[in-house]
Design brief:
451 residues, alpha/beta, Molybdenum Cofactor Biosythetic Enzyme, Chain A, Molybdopterin biosynthesis moea protein, domain 2, Molybdopterin biosynthesis moeA protein, domain 3, 4 domains, 6-stranded mixed beta sheet, 28 strands, 22% helix, 28% strand
Length: 451
């Protein structure tokens, strides 16, 4: 077994996880058929979802428009559909006078029997978005015209050129044009384009399944009566880790609580793999104490790559591989579990779910997470020999100059520790203090990463 005292440097742990991510993502991508031609190609593990449910999903193949957008010549202004030649010499002193043969609203299609088309000396009133009637080749804006209601005539005070204020059919998107590239994660921009093209279903990559298991004799599922179980506490990590996995594009499922017994933990892990989990996340049971049996279980079923990392909080982090699937062992303390998830688990989940796909507008932002510059509100002390992630609360401070407009926050560290539930709820983010730096002075500039 890899001994707990064999502390691995944080950078090496991230390198190992990066290798695992690339290998697992390649397998999942190949199975889903990503890399094929059009949406129907590849097969594999792709699944069809309705466009209104496709936000945040990764498309399996290129998507092409089945029609021209717009599908007809349409007016881009309210006004009058005319023959441009009828307006060439119009001005304020000598307006052109045309007969109004009818009116078209958006959604109506002009019929020959209804309007007979636009001929020399006539026009049709038209709304923005309405189809251009037969014979017309331009639109005069309504503000450049004056209509006499009783005589059904209109005066045009400004000339228009052919095609002016008209969007031709297919000028936005042509039929057969690629509108979404394979491997792209769908944002509201892409789903809007798909809706405009009338695409009702999209073939997307299946969300990787992630099993979440809590361990500990002291844990009780939320909803059970603590009064009937002295010495028990509610399980926090199952909820936060499932939600965190979901936030990173995966489909989590909880297998509940396993007691601190090798047989029970082993059975839960085997069950998670049998149910198709691509990743297994356990919390608790990772330290060097007598009751912490997770490392032994992982080694019995597979291989341990890391047991202990040079960070605080999160030193007892465990990384293993069972049947080719990564297994993460996170500390039981809720805040430590969340920070180690952010540092080590989230990058892998993004890679295998497609959240890091090409063209993903928000993936890089999520990778970097939202950050804000601040100043330390008080002295921040760090433990020697480890990279430390100090949980902080932000308070607004008045900027001293215009140059410091972005640095109008003060960061105050929490002193309650990683085991306090209130820390998890109240912390705005964390400040990274590099190994070897023991003090962040009051007023020193820091970067706060939101959690």
């Amino acid at each position: 077994m890899k001994q707990f005292l064999e502390i691995t440097e944080e950078g090496e742990v991230k390198r190992l996880i990066g290798d695992l991510s690339a290998e697992l993502a390649k397998k999942i991508t190949a199975g889903a058929g990503v890399g094929g031609g059009n949406v129907g190609a590849g097969g594999g593990k792709g699944e069809k979802v309705r466009t209104e449910e496709a936000l945040g999903r990764t498309v399996v193949g290129d998507i092409f428009s089945p029609l021209d957008i717009p599908p007809f010549d349409r007016a881009t202004m309210d006004g009058y559909a005319v023959l441009a030649a009828d307006t060439f010499y119009a001005d304020e002193s000598k307006p052109a006078t045309l007969v109004v043969r009818g009116y078209l609203k958006a959604g109506e299609f002009p019929s020959a029997s209804q309007y007979g088309g636009v001929e020399e000396g006539s026009c049709v009133g038209i709304a923005t978005g309405a189809p251009i009637p037969r014979g017309a080749n331009a639109v005069v804006k309504v503000e450049n015209a004056f209509e006499f209601e009783k005589s059904k005539k209109v005066r045009i005070y400004k000339p228009v050129a052919p095609a002016e204020n008209i969007m031709p059919a297919g000028s936005d998107i042509k039929r057969g044009e690629k509108v979404v590239k394979k491997g792209r994660l769908l944002t509201p921009r892409e789903t809007g384009v798909l809706a405009a093209c009338g695409v009702r279903e999209v073939l997307v990559r299946k969300k990787p399944r992630v099993a979440v298991i809590s361990t500990g004799n002291e844990l009780v599922a939320p909803g059970e009566a603590l009064s009937l179980a002295p010495g028990k506490i509610y399980d926090v990590n199952a909820q936060t880790l499932c939600d965190s996995a979901r936030e990173n594009g995966c489909a989590p499922f909880s297998l509940g609580i396993a007691r601190d017994e090798e047989g029970e933990i082993s059975a839960k892990i085997r069950e998670s793999l049998a149910k198709g989990a691509e990743v297994v996340i356990l919390s608790g049971g990772t330290s060097a104490g007598v009751g912490d049996v997770l490392p032994a279980v992982i080694e019995g079923l597979g291989e341990i790559l890391v047991h202990g990392v040079d960070i605080k909080p999160g030193k007892p982090f465990v990384l293993g591989v069972i049947q080719g699937k990564p297994v993460f062992g996170l500390p039981g303390n809720p805040t430590s579990a969340l920070i180690t998830f952010h540092l080590f688990v989230a990058p892998l989940l993004r890679a295998i779910s497609g959240e890091g796909s090409e063209g993903r507008g928000g993936s890089e932002g999520r990778e970097r997470r939202k950050r804000v510059k601040a100043k330390a509100g008080v002295r921040i002390f760090s433990e020697p020999g480890r990279n430390e992630y100090v949980l902080v609360n932000l308070a607004r401070a008045e900027s001293e100059s215009e140059e410091e407009q972005e640095e109008h926050f003060l960061a105050y560290p929490f002193l309650s520790g990683s085991g306090a539930i209130s820390t998890l709820a109240k912390a705005d983010g964390f400040v990274f203090v590099e190994k070897g730096k023991e003090i962040v002075e009051e007023g020193e500039r820091v970067e706060v990463v939101f959690i």
